[in-house]
Amino acid sequence: MRCEICGTKIVGKPLRTKIEGSVMLACPKCAKLGKIQREPPKKAKPKFMKSRPRRSEPAYEVLEDYNIIVREGREKKVWSREDLAEKIYEKVSVINRIESGRMMPDIKLAKKLERTLNIKLLEKTEETSADEFRKSSLKGATIGDIARIKKG
Ligand SMILES: [Zn+2]
Fold this sequence. Notes:
Layout (H helix, E strand, L loop, with lengths): L14 E5 L2 E5 L1 H4 L3 E3 L21 E4 L3 H11 L4 H7 L4 H8 L7 H11 L4 E4 L4 H9 L4 H9 L1
Antiparallel strand pairs: 1-2, 1-3, 4-5
Helix pairs in contact: 3-4
């Protein structure tokens, strides 16, 4: 690291000094010519770790029979694949792939299809936390059972 002002090799840490409005990294001698800047404050560590956001939004899963549901929904409306594609602003090839089961729509697209076709494509998935799972799996277990589990 060389001083940006005089070019001398700086031993150790260069000082930040403000000269004519610009901050330079300078040797201690040159630094005195300007206004020495304090070290930029280190990013303060957050006092507490943000706890992982609990999933407030329910998770969704696209139903397995999505291709049949979409096709039947579309046929009920007496729409061609082109009609449907136009209504959801997608390419016909997308509809083709969905209806043939070659492409599972993502949640966003599935929601769009649900609204447009008046169908149900998404299923709420129940997310059980590991804790709840443990509790429920131990429910009804006798102390002896638990001891056995612990012993392995
Ligand atoms: Zn210097």
